[in-house]
Amino acid sequence: MFVTNDPDTASRPAIIMMPGQGEQGTSDTNKLVAYGPHYWLNHGWDGGLQLGNGKHYPILITAAYINNVSPTAPQYYTLLTYLLNTYHIKRNAVHFTGLSQGAMTTGELIKFEMTAGAETGMKLVTSFAALEGTPGALPSPYNGWDRDTVAYKVWAKKYGGKYFYLEGSGSDNFRDGWHYSVAMNDTLPGCAYFSYENLGGGAHCCWNSMYDPNATNWTCVGTLGPNNAPSQVGKNTMGTYFAQSSIFQWMLRQGDTSLVGVATPSPRVVKKVVVSEYRTWYYLSDSTIWGYNNSSAYPVQYAPPSGRKWCFVFGGFNIFNALDDLGYVWQTKAFNFDITTNTYRVDTDTTGGAFSGNIYVDGYSNAILTIRSDSSIWYGGKDVYSLFYPGGSTVTSVGQVMKFTQLSPAGLKFKKVVCGGPGILALTTDGKVYKWSNGGSKTPTLYSTPRPAIDIFISALNLQGCIIPDVFGSQTMGYPYVWGGTTSMYGGGPAYSQPTSIKALWNITVPIKEISVDWNTIHYIDSLGRMWGCGFNSFGEVGNGQEFVNKYYYPGYPGYGWSLINYENPSGIPVQIKPGTLFKHIWSTTWFGLYKYAQDLNDSIYSWGRNKALALGNGYGSTSETDQYHPNTLDVLVPKRVTPLTARFTTYNFTAPTLSAGANKTITSTSTTLTATGNPALVISQIRPAPNGVDTVGYWWISYAWTKVSGPNNPTIVSPSSKSTSVTGMVNGTYVFQVLATDNNTGQDTSQVQVIVNQAGVPPTVYAGINQSTTLPKDSATLTGTASGNSGATITSTSWSQVSGPNTATIRTPSSLSTVVAGLIAGTYTFKLTATDSNSQTANDTVTVTVSQPQPTVIEVHIRKGTNVLIITDN
Known about the structure:
Elements lengths: L11 E7 L18 H5 L7 E3 L2 E3 L2 E4 L10 H14 L2 E11 L1 H11 L15 E5 L17 H11 L2 E7 L9 H10 L4 E6 L9 H5 L16 E2 L17 H7 L16 E6 L4 E5 L4 E3 L8 E3 L7 E6 L4 E5 L4 E3 L12 E3 L11 E7 L2 E6 L4 E6 L18 E6 L7 E7 L2 E6 L4 E5 L7 E3 L7 E4 L5 E5 L10 E6 L11 E6 L10 E6 L3 E6 L4 E5 L13 H5 L21 E3 L5 E5 L7 E6 L4 E5 L10 E3 L13 E7 L7 E6 L2 E3 L4 E3 L4 E4 L1 E3 L2 E4 L15 E10 L5 E2 L6 E5 L4 E11 L4 E10 L7 E3 L4 E4 L5 E4 L1 E3 L6 E10 L5 E2 L6 E5 L4 E11 L4 E11 L6 E5 L6 E5 L1
Parallel strand pairs: 1-4, 1-5, 5-6, 6-7, 7-8, 37-39, 41-49, 51-58
Antiparallel strand pairs: 2-3, 8-9, 10-11, 11-12, 12-13, 14-15, 15-16, 16-17, 18-19, 19-20, 20-21, 22-23, 23-24, 24-25, 26-27, 27-28, 28-29, 30-31, 31-32, 32-33, 34-35, 35-36, 36-38, 39-44, 40-43, 42-47, 45-48, 46-47, 48-49, 50-53, 52-56, 54-57, 55-56, 57-58, 59-60
Helix pairs in contact: 2-3, 4-5
């Protein structure tokens, strides 16, 4: 179970697992290896868990009861106190897990309090991974003060408890573990994971598939992991989980992860990324510095002088400044853009003494500042701030070249200094914040803060700030206080002249662990490892998937390149960057720092922003990056994982974007098909096959939008978001259609096509009605006809007219299908109904109306002879 030289007696983390009811209430020890870590130990797993700093071998315990299938929390507490007092388990790395009944009992442990408010059980638990089991009621008398979800809130906030819960997505998903994740996240956002899973159809089963050490993707938000299911009543939340991590790896990361004993040496990892305007270097855990050397295929080592090693490194104006173990400052050749591995030592200061004993270095433009072992600040290089000599400029990087001179007043001790456009900001060892203003006095200004600061930051623009802990809470982390006029950079309003809290503005609920400010963006990592960012998003440097330059200029190609204007495209208050990944470091520079690097908890490196001159560590270089049109074709808009030490330098040519909606055409039908062709901007390797195996780095269209620009009616665009679409319901006339294509880098282009519809088609069908007759004195008749279009056309007009007749009749509503004709006299009339359709086709039909005179009445009178009877007959 343990690697060589790792003594079993060493204190180490523990993973304690309790199975379900089927494995309880029996003395059969085979039940202990049915599920969980001991099952996998019997199936090829060595018990080791790989984290960023090496392989860990925690103590693995499976606990079950031989006389009880439903153990209670007080019973479990008794067993656990024995285990913790007997074995060398790190008390800040006690990780619990359970399935079904085991999860219920362990969940009750967190609620268990020996007396009201004692918080007895939760004190033992560092993390808890529950598989389909939520806590039930505590036994008497403890149920009298059972705080249920409130206990989980206390566990999260007071003891830093971390929670991971999986629930089946099937019909029996009634356990509602999400109640506890919601309660914890309400108290301490991002501390609890909850997800539905689909193993076994989402049934109450499949525990070993969940515990599988090789099951390392439990992503439950966005693109789901292979065994995750969408949210149902409960909402999936990532908590502190990130892929690629097994459940066991997740548990281990929530506590003390220092390695035990003398294990296999840790792999060489990046300790710091040194960012300058166009150049990037990588400072490794073995104290070596690496970077591209002119056109070297891979980064090469910038070796320290013989017998020395690098101890600290910082970027400048396309140079780096490094400290060796004697505290001397070394630089790549200042002011001459010497892109080689040559480094030069600064031997003496302005007094002629050896300029050694430096412990910290920072810079801006061509000015360099150091802190020496006596905590004093020294200033050298070019006096761009005009602190000692007039005529310096941070904008044009001019200034008197000067040897290093002490800048800080006697008696003040400093632990950090940062440089930016407004001046030089410094932090004393007792938390005071001082500033030397650009073009100001050599005497610094002291700023008023409510409590001692623990960190400081500054931008190239008019923004400065510090991190100050709250009165109650961590004193190694804190919250932002800012001042300066560039308030839109952080989503603010009125400017502050003194450090002012923006904790409420940013809706911060947990303290900041690390903050990084460059030319125009702000990023920070909170205590949960989440990264947040905001600022002026010109080249994707915020990392939220957007940028301003390419998106704005793309439709007007070739205006595709550099056009930085300060203060453009502010993103507002910080948003989370790359959710689901937890970070521990961010690196950038205030001098034209338009790109950033970050490191996650596994020591993986990510970069994003403007990618010029191999700046992002992915090995991609463009031959067109020196002209005005398209140096930004390689921008990266969200953090992308890179391996800079093994990235092969490959040169790419820029290929202009093309988009066509198709050739103009004339059709004789009412429908047509439109198809977009072409490509977005492409960056294609100069050499085929490419040295790095990637021939094309360019973009691809990810969406289309077809619209009608003009035309005689509104036809139906059947698939407006597809590359190819049918258009139906057109009529005769001229149409213009447009397609808008968007690429995966937010670039957009448009193209239009003209379609002329000229169809003869079938004329409309017209019926004037049945022939009619009438007799005077009625001198009117009602005509009722019908008309319908063919070939998809519609009737646009109808008209009645008189063709013949003994006089001219009155047609009261000639444009209606039904009309009265009046003023008729005896004789025969012919009326015509004419209809015109939307294709300008006409047709007609006629109807006759016969008008007759009334017939005379003949009366015969008969007188019957010999009577007085008169008989009248109407013939």
